[in-house]
Amino acid sequence: MAGTSSYVHFHDIPDVVLAIIFSLVADTRTRNVMSLVCLKWHLLERSTRKSLTLRGNIRNLFLLPTCFRAVTHLDLSLLSPWGHPLLDSSSNPLLLAQLLRHAFPSVVSLVVYIRNPSTLHLLAPQWPNLRHVKLIRWHQRLPTEPLGSDFTALFEYSSMLSSLDVSFFHSWTEDLLPAIKAYPLIAASLSHLNILKHSSAEGFKSYELLAITASCPNLRKLLATCIFDHRFIGFVGDQTLLALASNCPCLSLLHLVDATSLSNIRPDPNDEGYTSEDASISHTTLGDVFAGLPLLEELVLDVCYNVRDTWPALELLNSRCPRLKALKLGQFHGICRGINARLDGIALCRGLESLSIKNSADLTDKALEAISLGCPRLSKFEVLGCKKITGKGMWELTHALRKTLVHVKISFCKNFNAVSSLQAMEPIRDRIERLHIDCVWNTLDNSKNQTRSSSSQELSESYNLQARKRDMIKEEKRLKKKSKSHFHDVGDENLFSSRTWSKLHHLSLWIGVGELLTPLSLAGLDDCPALEEIEIKIEGDSRNQQRPCMDSLGLRSLACYPRLLRMLLDCSGVIGYALTAPPGQADLSLWERFFLNGIEILNLKELNYWPAQDMDLNQRSLFLPAAALLAQCGSLRKLFIHGTTNEHFMMFLLRIPTLRDVQVREDYYPAPENDTITEMRVESCRRFEDALNSSNRHIPD
């Protein structure tokens, strides 16, 4: 522009505008990098930081930052030593609580690990303006404490409390109700209550749930674990649902799941999909419940017991809950009949953007087609344990929703293996962002697994892993060359063409213990240039398996993803022998070598690892082979071990030159109350953290 000076510096931007720009940056590492540019940017970044997760050892008070005065959301649950009483490390716990308030005076949202009630008695008075609180505890509740004692201090000092999350806080179901009744004003002000019980298999009884909702009439979000089995006293049925809708008519989110649903037990693929018992829930009652919740935007009903012929009630959702955007149904049958291409049941909910269907025994391809036509806004779709749908029906659905669908999950479905699942994603291959499939490589029956080309059939038949022995790597190369030749021969008609998954950034996989990950790239997932995060869940009883015939699970095959930075490797579903195994079988240390072998060649920056478990000993430990393999990951910056380990195994990790953040978390129930002589103790954590943060270690960045 004429007359405008060309010497315009970034610092010429007004401070108010610059502060707004800084406040829009959410990534923590990016903000830290910005703060290193100059002193002005450093001060501006610190003054605009609103959320902070505090790490480090609580005993190092001289490292407590005092420059984040504007932080409103503070997470204290990950302080070291993890899981120990937060303030017990100080000779003057009240002074420590006051120091935290002085460093973060603006906190209104708090996340904290509560080992015993004394922690909240000291922390809650420091921030009287708390509005949101999330409590975490994986250790067992002290049986000597009176009912409600965990919540008394919080309700007494937090008069502005509006949101309470105890989904990862182990307590008895009888604990919450006495505290709510003792503080009726707090109960009336609550708008968000999360009482899911991830830490135990207990569920709230119907009379407990109704008493809680009657005391909290202004709830807008309610998440709870219940009992839907009519054989138990206090089960949730028609009357409970109607009363709940009457108690809290302003709900925008209702999330009710049966206690057995959180166990994530893989269903039997050979059953018909129906449970032996029906839930005491009728479609007439469901219609009345929907009518009583007109503001509903998200609904989850994972009942785990048959709810039959639900399509008449689901047809009412569109008119009675016009704001509904997300819906998840578990063990609901007859949700959509799909007869003669007529839209019925759930297919009439045109406003849905997220739909999850779990264990619907009579869901068919015709129903999927009706859903794809009746719900054109779907961006997220999940099917779990649906036995009658096939790859053809999923292909038709993804084709019809190719302009909106970006998140898909296919799991526990009898007629799907990895190959057919990826075939069904072909219409949205260039658009999908998040995907979950099961790594099941066996060939399906031809009458059920309908393929669209002869080459894909040949590729699927080559995935019989039971025939793989020591020459797996050579065989893989041969199959890869063969598959490429098939692709060129078939041309554009081949479903596994060379086109890339250009927007896929998150991949989630389920795989059975003893199976291999190596065929994944051959199945069509070989070109994912944007893939940054992968989540692998391994499940099964290794006690029923012979020693692994291969040297590794196949993590080295993931090296074909150039941008892969984060991995969640969850082996907690693997059961085995922590100590000496019987002859002919492998203990967990050998299985860990099998799982982790090859991880060192990946350019990972962050790893979350859940070790396998010995249920008889309640032990999830990192063994020597795993520690040695992890120590070879030369690019790791963050490593979180969700279990226990020995101190000298942890010292192996100091060989990783870029390692900056490490923590051992026993975040499973019940977390060990007393560390044994061989496991990480408070002093063990201190020595390791001192060595990790030593000035002798030079971190490149």
UniProtKB/TrEMBL annotation:
It comes from the Eukaryota. GO terms for biological process: SCF-dependent proteasomal ubiquitin-dependent protein catabolic process. Pfam families: F-box_5. InterPro entries: COI1_F-box, Leu-rich_rpt_Cys-con_subtyp, LRR_dom_sf. GO terms for cellular component: nucleus; SCF ubiquitin ligase complex. Residues 13-50 form the COI1 F-box domain. This is COI1 F-box domain-containing protein.
